[in-house]
Description:
16 helices, disordered C terminus, binds iron/sulfur cluster, Fumarate Reductase Iron-sulfur Protein, Chain B, domain 2, single chain
Amino acid sequence: EKYRRVTPWLLPSGPPPERVYIVPAEAMVDVTQSVACIQCGACVSACLAMEADPEFIGPAALAKAYRFVGDPRDGQTTERLYDLANDPHGIYDCTHCFACIEACPKGVAPMDQIMRLRRLAGDVHDIDDVNNGRRHEHAFTKIIERKGTLDESLLLQESFAPGVIGKLKPSLAAIKSLLQSIPTAIRGIRTGKMRSVPKLIPGVHHKLPGGSQDHVKRIYATAEESRIELNLFVIGEGGEEEHLPGQQPADAQDLEPEPDFNQT
Ligand code: SF4
Ligand code: SF4
Protein backbone atom coordinates (compact mmCIF):
# COMPACT_ATOMS: atom_id res chain seq x y z
CA GLU A 1 0.00 0.00 0.00
CA LYS A 2 2.85 2.41 0.85
CA TYR A 3 4.53 1.60 -2.47
CA ARG A 4 1.29 2.25 -4.37
CA ARG A 5 1.05 5.58 -2.55
CA VAL A 6 4.12 6.90 -4.43
CA THR A 7 2.88 5.82 -7.90
CA PRO A 8 5.84 3.49 -8.57
CA TRP A 9 5.64 3.50 -12.34
CA LEU A 10 6.69 5.92 -15.06
CA LEU A 11 4.32 8.70 -16.08
CA PRO A 12 5.97 9.93 -19.28
CA SER A 13 4.74 13.05 -21.04
CA GLY A 14 4.02 13.31 -24.76
CA PRO A 15 3.21 10.53 -27.19
CA PRO A 16 5.03 7.20 -26.60
CA PRO A 17 8.01 6.48 -28.86
CA GLU A 18 7.58 4.07 -31.76
CA ARG A 19 9.83 1.44 -30.18
CA VAL A 20 11.44 2.05 -26.74
CA TYR A 21 12.45 5.08 -24.67
CA ILE A 22 16.16 5.70 -25.19
CA VAL A 23 17.95 7.26 -22.23
CA PRO A 24 21.69 8.01 -22.05
CA ALA A 25 23.28 5.72 -19.42
CA GLU A 26 24.71 8.69 -17.50
CA ALA A 27 21.21 10.12 -17.04
CA MET A 28 20.26 6.99 -15.07
CA VAL A 29 23.30 7.06 -12.73
CA ASP A 30 21.38 9.26 -10.30
CA VAL A 31 18.75 6.58 -9.66
CA THR A 32 21.00 3.49 -9.53
CA GLN A 33 21.09 3.60 -5.73
CA SER A 34 17.31 3.47 -5.36
CA VAL A 35 16.99 0.84 -8.10
CA ALA A 36 19.13 -1.49 -5.95
CA CYS A 37 16.29 -1.91 -3.39
CA ILE A 38 15.20 -5.54 -2.91
CA GLN A 39 12.13 -4.58 -0.84
CA CYS A 40 13.35 -6.52 2.22
CA GLY A 41 11.67 -4.06 4.61
CA ALA A 42 14.67 -3.78 6.98
CA CYS A 43 14.60 0.03 6.77
CA VAL A 44 10.89 0.09 7.56
CA SER A 45 11.42 -2.05 10.69
CA ALA A 46 14.24 0.27 11.82
CA CYS A 47 12.40 3.55 11.20
CA LEU A 48 11.44 5.31 14.43
CA ALA A 49 9.33 7.89 12.60
CA MET A 50 7.11 5.05 11.35
CA GLU A 51 6.71 3.86 14.92
CA ALA A 52 5.59 7.35 16.00
CA ASP A 53 3.45 7.86 12.89
CA PRO A 54 2.35 4.60 11.22
CA GLU A 55 0.93 6.65 8.35
CA PHE A 56 4.42 7.95 7.43
CA ILE A 57 5.05 6.85 3.85
CA GLY A 58 8.35 5.46 5.08
CA PRO A 59 11.93 4.97 3.86
CA ALA A 60 11.44 2.11 1.38
CA ALA A 61 8.52 3.71 -0.48
CA LEU A 62 10.16 7.15 -0.51
CA ALA A 63 13.39 5.67 -1.90
CA LYS A 64 11.20 4.14 -4.61
CA ALA A 65 9.61 7.57 -5.15
CA TYR A 66 13.05 9.04 -5.89
CA ARG A 67 13.66 6.27 -8.42
CA PHE A 68 10.87 7.82 -10.55
CA VAL A 69 11.39 11.48 -9.64
CA GLY A 70 15.02 11.14 -10.75
CA ASP A 71 14.16 9.27 -13.97
CA PRO A 72 14.56 11.60 -16.96
CA ARG A 73 11.74 9.80 -18.79
CA ASP A 74 9.14 10.79 -16.19
CA GLY A 75 6.99 13.78 -17.02
CA GLN A 76 5.32 14.36 -13.63
CA THR A 77 8.31 15.40 -11.49
CA THR A 78 6.78 18.61 -10.09
CA GLU A 79 3.43 16.94 -9.40
CA ARG A 80 5.13 14.04 -7.60
CA LEU A 81 7.24 16.40 -5.47
CA TYR A 82 4.27 18.62 -4.63
CA ASP A 83 2.30 15.56 -3.59
CA LEU A 84 5.08 14.18 -1.36
CA ALA A 85 5.80 17.57 0.25
CA ASN A 86 2.17 18.34 0.97
CA ASP A 87 1.31 15.02 2.52
CA PRO A 88 1.68 15.49 6.32
CA HIS A 89 3.11 11.94 6.36
CA GLY A 90 5.43 12.60 3.41
CA ILE A 91 9.06 13.65 2.96
CA TYR A 92 9.07 16.09 5.88
CA ASP A 93 7.89 13.42 8.35
CA CYS A 94 11.40 11.87 8.33
CA THR A 95 13.43 12.85 11.41
CA HIS A 96 16.81 12.40 9.71
CA CYS A 97 17.91 9.74 12.23
CA PHE A 98 20.07 7.60 9.85
CA ALA A 99 18.55 4.30 11.15
CA CYS A 100 17.37 3.24 7.67
CA ILE A 101 20.84 3.83 6.20
CA GLU A 102 22.39 1.54 8.79
CA ALA A 103 19.71 -1.14 8.35
CA CYS A 104 19.75 -1.35 4.53
CA PRO A 105 21.76 -4.34 3.22
CA LYS A 106 21.92 -2.96 -0.33
CA GLY A 107 23.35 0.50 0.25
CA VAL A 108 20.18 2.23 -0.93
CA ALA A 109 20.52 4.82 1.87
CA PRO A 110 16.78 5.66 1.91
CA MET A 111 17.33 8.77 4.03
CA ASP A 112 19.63 10.19 1.34
CA GLN A 113 16.90 9.63 -1.25
CA ILE A 114 14.42 11.44 1.01
CA MET A 115 16.85 14.36 1.40
CA ARG A 116 17.22 14.48 -2.40
CA LEU A 117 13.44 14.65 -2.72
CA ARG A 118 13.40 17.52 -0.20
CA ARG A 119 16.16 19.44 -1.97
CA LEU A 120 14.46 19.01 -5.33
CA ALA A 121 11.08 20.04 -3.92
CA GLY A 122 12.33 23.04 -1.93
CA ASP A 123 15.41 24.35 -3.72
CA VAL A 124 14.65 23.47 -7.33
CA HIS A 125 10.84 23.54 -7.53
CA ASP A 126 10.27 26.10 -4.74
CA ILE A 127 7.57 23.98 -3.08
CA ASP A 128 6.60 24.86 0.50
CA ASP A 129 5.35 21.89 2.49
CA VAL A 130 2.39 21.39 4.73
CA ASN A 131 4.58 20.48 7.75
CA ASN A 132 6.57 23.74 7.53
CA GLY A 133 9.64 21.51 7.27
CA ARG A 134 11.35 23.57 4.59
CA ARG A 135 11.23 26.78 6.62
CA HIS A 136 12.24 24.87 9.76
CA GLU A 137 15.36 23.58 7.96
CA HIS A 138 16.20 27.08 6.75
CA ALA A 139 15.71 28.51 10.25
CA PHE A 140 17.91 25.80 11.78
CA THR A 141 20.81 26.34 9.37
CA LYS A 142 20.50 30.14 9.55
CA ILE A 143 20.70 30.15 13.37
CA ILE A 144 23.71 27.82 13.45
CA GLU A 145 25.46 29.95 10.84
CA ARG A 146 24.85 33.05 12.95
CA LYS A 147 25.48 31.64 16.43
CA GLY A 148 27.38 28.36 16.05
CA THR A 149 24.94 26.41 18.24
CA LEU A 150 21.16 26.17 18.24
CA ASP A 151 19.39 29.11 19.89
CA GLU A 152 16.08 27.46 20.81
CA SER A 153 14.51 30.83 21.57
CA LEU A 154 14.73 31.76 17.89
CA LEU A 155 13.87 28.41 16.31
CA LEU A 156 10.08 28.60 16.53
CA GLN A 157 9.95 32.24 15.55
CA GLU A 158 12.33 31.81 12.61
CA SER A 159 10.55 28.64 11.47
CA PHE A 160 7.05 30.06 11.47
CA ALA A 161 7.45 33.81 11.17
CA PRO A 162 10.93 34.83 10.04
CA GLY A 163 11.42 38.51 10.67
CA VAL A 164 8.63 38.70 13.25
CA ILE A 165 10.80 40.71 15.64
CA GLY A 166 12.71 42.73 13.06
CA LYS A 167 9.80 43.69 10.85
CA LEU A 168 6.85 43.27 13.21
CA LYS A 169 4.81 42.01 10.28
CA PRO A 170 3.92 38.40 11.05
CA SER A 171 1.19 36.90 8.91
CA LEU A 172 -1.96 35.58 10.55
CA ALA A 173 -0.99 32.05 9.51
CA ALA A 174 2.41 32.49 11.19
CA ILE A 175 0.85 33.71 14.45
CA LYS A 176 -1.56 30.76 14.36
CA SER A 177 1.30 28.31 13.80
CA LEU A 178 3.34 29.87 16.60
CA LEU A 179 0.42 29.56 19.02
CA GLN A 180 -0.16 25.96 17.92
CA SER A 181 3.49 25.21 18.70
CA ILE A 182 3.26 26.30 22.33
CA PRO A 183 2.15 22.83 23.60
CA THR A 184 5.14 21.27 21.77
CA ALA A 185 7.48 23.78 23.41
CA ILE A 186 5.99 23.05 26.84
CA ARG A 187 6.40 19.31 26.23
CA GLY A 188 10.04 19.97 25.24
CA ILE A 189 10.70 21.79 28.50
CA ARG A 190 8.90 19.13 30.57
CA THR A 191 10.74 16.20 28.97
CA GLY A 192 14.11 17.94 29.17
CA LYS A 193 14.57 18.27 25.41
CA MET A 194 14.78 22.02 25.92
CA ARG A 195 17.09 21.86 28.88
CA SER A 196 17.44 25.37 30.06
CA VAL A 197 14.41 27.65 30.36
CA PRO A 198 16.54 30.86 30.46
CA LYS A 199 17.94 29.85 27.08
CA LEU A 200 14.43 30.23 25.68
CA ILE A 201 14.56 33.96 26.37
CA PRO A 202 15.67 35.80 23.22
CA GLY A 203 19.12 37.36 23.53
CA VAL A 204 20.31 35.08 26.36
CA HIS A 205 21.91 32.43 24.13
CA HIS A 206 25.72 32.52 24.26
CA LYS A 207 27.95 32.99 21.24
CA LEU A 208 30.91 30.75 20.50
CA PRO A 209 34.15 31.90 22.13
CA GLY A 210 37.02 33.55 20.27
CA GLY A 211 37.12 33.07 16.53
CA SER A 212 35.10 29.82 16.57
CA GLN A 213 32.16 31.47 14.85
CA ASP A 214 34.43 32.33 11.91
CA HIS A 215 35.27 28.62 11.61
CA VAL A 216 31.55 27.81 11.41
CA LYS A 217 31.06 30.45 8.71
CA ARG A 218 33.98 28.96 6.75
CA ILE A 219 32.32 25.51 6.94
CA TYR A 220 29.15 27.04 5.46
CA ALA A 221 31.12 28.75 2.70
CA THR A 222 32.91 25.49 1.82
CA ALA A 223 29.61 23.58 1.82
CA GLU A 224 28.08 26.18 -0.52
CA GLU A 225 31.04 25.91 -2.88
CA SER A 226 30.86 22.11 -2.89
CA ARG A 227 27.19 21.61 -3.67
CA ILE A 228 27.91 18.58 -5.81
CA GLU A 229 25.39 15.77 -5.64
CA LEU A 230 27.56 12.66 -5.18
CA ASN A 231 25.99 9.31 -5.86
CA LEU A 232 27.74 7.18 -3.22
CA PHE A 233 26.61 3.94 -4.86
CA VAL A 234 28.76 4.74 -7.87
CA ILE A 235 31.45 6.98 -6.43
CA GLY A 236 32.03 5.12 -3.12
CA GLU A 237 32.08 6.72 0.32
CA GLY A 238 35.85 7.16 0.35
CA GLY A 239 35.84 8.72 -3.11
CA GLU A 240 37.03 5.41 -4.64
CA GLU A 241 35.17 4.66 -7.81
CA GLU A 242 33.14 1.46 -7.62
CA HIS A 243 32.12 -0.46 -10.70
CA LEU A 244 29.05 -2.32 -11.73
CA PRO A 245 29.52 -6.03 -12.57
CA GLY A 246 31.24 -6.46 -15.94
CA GLN A 247 32.33 -2.82 -16.01
CA GLN A 248 35.99 -1.82 -16.21
CA PRO A 249 37.56 1.11 -14.42
CA ALA A 250 37.56 4.29 -16.51
CA ASP A 251 41.39 4.26 -16.59
CA ALA A 252 41.47 0.72 -17.98
CA GLN A 253 38.93 1.69 -20.63
CA ASP A 254 41.11 4.63 -21.59
CA LEU A 255 44.15 2.33 -21.99
CA GLU A 256 42.37 -0.21 -24.17
CA PRO A 257 43.50 0.04 -27.84
CA GLU A 258 40.96 1.26 -30.36
CA PRO A 259 39.59 -1.66 -32.43
CA ASP A 260 41.00 -1.76 -35.97
CA PHE A 261 37.99 -2.19 -38.26
CA ASN A 262 40.23 -2.48 -41.32
CA GLN A 263 41.62 -5.82 -40.14
CA THR A 264 39.94 -8.94 -41.50
S1 SF4 B 1 16.16 8.71 8.51
FE1 SF4 B 1 13.96 9.10 8.27
S2 SF4 B 1 13.20 7.43 7.03
FE2 SF4 B 1 15.21 6.82 7.81
S3 SF4 B 1 14.79 5.66 9.66
FE3 SF4 B 1 15.12 7.77 10.30
S4 SF4 B 1 13.09 8.72 10.31
FE4 SF4 B 1 12.92 6.80 9.17
S1 SF4 C 1 16.39 -1.89 3.65
FE1 SF4 C 1 17.20 -1.20 1.65
S2 SF4 C 1 16.81 -2.94 0.28
FE2 SF4 C 1 15.53 -3.25 2.11
S3 SF4 C 1 13.53 -2.29 1.59
FE3 SF4 C 1 14.76 -0.73 2.62
S4 SF4 C 1 15.76 0.37 0.96
FE4 SF4 C 1 15.05 -1.55 0.09
